[in-house]
Amino acid sequence: MAAETANSDNLRTALYQTHVGLGARMVPFGGWDMPVQYAGVIAEVGAVRGGAGMFDVSHMGRLHIGGPNAAGLLDILLTGSASDLRLGRARYCFICNRDGGVIDDTIFYRLSDDEFLLIPNAGNRPQVVLWFDRQLAHHFDGRGVQITDRTMLTGLIALQGPDAARILDGLCEDFAPGARLARNPGRSPQPSLLRPFAWGRGHIDGRRVFVGRTGYTGEDGFELALGASDAAAIWERLAEAGAVPCGLGARDVLRLEAGLPLHGHELTETITPIEAGLSRFVRRDGGFNGADVLDNQRVYGTNRRLVGLTMPGRSAPRAGYEVLANGAPVGAVSSGSYSPTLEKCVAMAFVETAYAEPGTELTVDIRGRAAAVTTVELPFYRRAS
Amino acid sequence: MNPDDRKYTREHEWVLVEDAAAGMALVGITHYAQDQLGDVVYLELPQVDAAVGYLAKMGEIESVKAVSDLYSPVSGAVTEVNGRLAHEPELVNNDPFGDGWMLRVRMSAPSELDELLDAAGYEAYLGEL
Questions:
Q1: Prediction ipTM score
Q2: Taking the CA atoms of chain A, what radius of gyration do you get in angstroms?
Q3: B36 CB near a chain A CB, below 8 Å?
Q4: Closest residue to A314, CB basis, from B42, B65, B66
Q5: pLDDT, tens only, A225-251
């Protein structure tokens, strides 16, 4: 048994005292002290799959990128188009280096013709800001783009689960979508009318919230950006409405069940989106960093591929464990856990492409024990729609 | 919170002497340990008759989040394994000092107990972590 403890040098979100008051166990993550669990990972996963859970994800960055060259710069830096993104919408994609490796994965929202909100991962925020600054100097003589880091002034709460829309509709007042709603039922707009990857603005108890229909759990849900000083009050209102506080432990299990990548595991500066099976988030018309490498990989294939692995039982393959075929190493696990939803173990792994076909029988070296696993298509879990 | 009828390791296992004359003791992990681990889903424990060694690895405990080694607080031979844990590993979370016990051991060197922490010493140790 080794103990992890929160670290006083780390950053704290506006909800830190709320978490401590709830009895959360705090751990260091990406330079922040964050709640890993409250009641327990299994109960929290169940809350998100069967009702509604909420996560403090304020450790992720809020970068505002504005100005006449903002879309042009993002078109160079991101694998998804910024200039094609309609007002009121959001997009998931990658910030790649010139080798096609992933500096970070991100969701970005188009707030206006020349302003975007971009969400980098907690630990990658400093590198992303540096990379953007350097690239701006290179491409536009440093002109026409302002990058403003509002991470410390704001908070971010993810409300996720089948009950998330009902809860948010009940709390959110004067809701205004960022773009005209596709469905117009002839009543006042509500968050539940947002399509996935659309956003709007409203108020909860008179406090301003930015509402994106996005998430990282495989369930329906929202991410709420709000003023740092409003975070605790809004968290409290969500809790009263039935949202169960959930920590990073549950968040990691939920995203793994949903087959969603975690930077540092399925995506790194030496892993490309094509290898990770995420080519649908890489545009085909080129013109962005890494485009040549990624186009090449898309056409000619890659030596390794990300696969899902499943195995019965509860002793899970963990990140770093070797994957073998007929006793010879063919890859490594990138993430793995017992899945409380599926009641078996699930893992993601990079394997030589010859072994990536679904249904391939492989083994994982679980601390010296050869455990039989089967490759499957991702995701492991898909919600009923 | 930590019962004073038993001894503790710095790795957060406990040993409770049931019958000093026969050298029989129960072994488990502490409330602190189960709280740190989170939801326990799997245990890899030695079989009956296996030898365990003083502060030597005796098995593994796996939570949803992570896997950790378990260390035996005493040397001896395993006489019983808590069979309920195979199907109810959550007993380790719910009752670490009672129904969540792991092994019954016949101690071969009971003087090792003198090297372990008592409840007050363990509390003080936790305070330093």
A1: 0.86
A2: 21
A3: yes
A4: B42
A5: 999 999 999 999 999 999 999 999 999
